[in-house]
């Protein structure tokens, strides 16, 4: 079985960290990925760009609406994910609108942030 571990945290949690402390957190995360891979548990991992880069897509009565951010109604909970390749946010939004769950829920579209060791 596969599991997606979504990491939730306060948006500004790293603000008090020095650049060195932030890099140490990135390094620790990447090293943990290496351990998971070594132990046969790793499938894929990526950090997301800030929530301010996200778009939420809803389709109602055949009409798509797009709002800024991951501001889904509070009664909604995460039910799964679809990882896609798109040339830009506009294409990603169009692709997200085609996901059947958009007709009954919402799809948050967020670019992936690439991390590396310094």
Helices and strands, with pairings:
Elements: H1 19-38, E1 47-48, E2 55-60, E3 63-68, H2 89-97, E4 107-109, E5 112-113
Antiparallel strand pairs: 1-5, 2-3, 2-4
Structure in a nutshell:
It is built from two helices and five strands. The protein has helices spanning 19-38, 89-97; strands spanning 47-48, 55-60, 63-68, 107-109, 112-113.
Structural class: alpha+beta
Beta-strand content bin: 15-25%
N-to-C SSE series?
HEEEHEE
Largest sheet: 3 strands, antiparallel
Binned, the helix content reads 10-25%
Distance N to C terminus: 34 Å
Mean pLDDT over all positions: 80
Low-confidence stretches: none
Q: For the largest beta sheet, what order do the strands appear in spatially?
A: 3-2-4
Shape assignment:
globular
**What is the alpha-carbon Rg in Å?**
16 Å
Q: Enumerate how many helices there are, as a single number.
A: 2
Number of beta-strand segments: 5
Walk me through this protein's architecture.
By secondary structure, the protein is α+β, with helices and mostly antiparallel strands. Helices cover 25% and strands 16% of the residues. It contains two helices and five strands; from the N terminus they run H-E-E-E-H-E-E. The protein has helices at 19-38, 89-97, and strands at residues 47-48, 55-60, 63-68, 107-109, 112-113. It has a three-stranded antiparallel beta sheet with strand order 3-2-4. A hairpin with a 2-residue loop joins strand 2 and strand 3 (63-68). The longest helix has 20 residues, at 19-38. The radius of gyration is 16 Å and the shape is globular. The termini are far apart. The model has no long low-confidence stretch (mean pLDDT 80).
């Amino acid at each position: 079985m596969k599991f997606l571990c979504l990491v939730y945290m306060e948006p500004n949690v790293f603000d008090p960290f020095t650049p060195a402390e932030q890099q140490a957190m990135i390094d620790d995360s990447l090293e943990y990925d290496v351990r998971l891979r070594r132990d046969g548990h790793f499938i894929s991992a990526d950090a997301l760009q800030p929530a301010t880069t996200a778009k939420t897509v809803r389709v109602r009565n055949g009409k798509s609406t797009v709002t800024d951010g991951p501001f889904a109604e509070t009664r909604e909970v995460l039910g799964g994910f679809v990882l896609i390749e798109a040339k830009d946010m506009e294409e990603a939004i169009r692709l997200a609108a085609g996901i059947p769950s958009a007709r009954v829920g919402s799809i948050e579209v967020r670019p992936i942030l690439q991390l590396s060791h310094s």
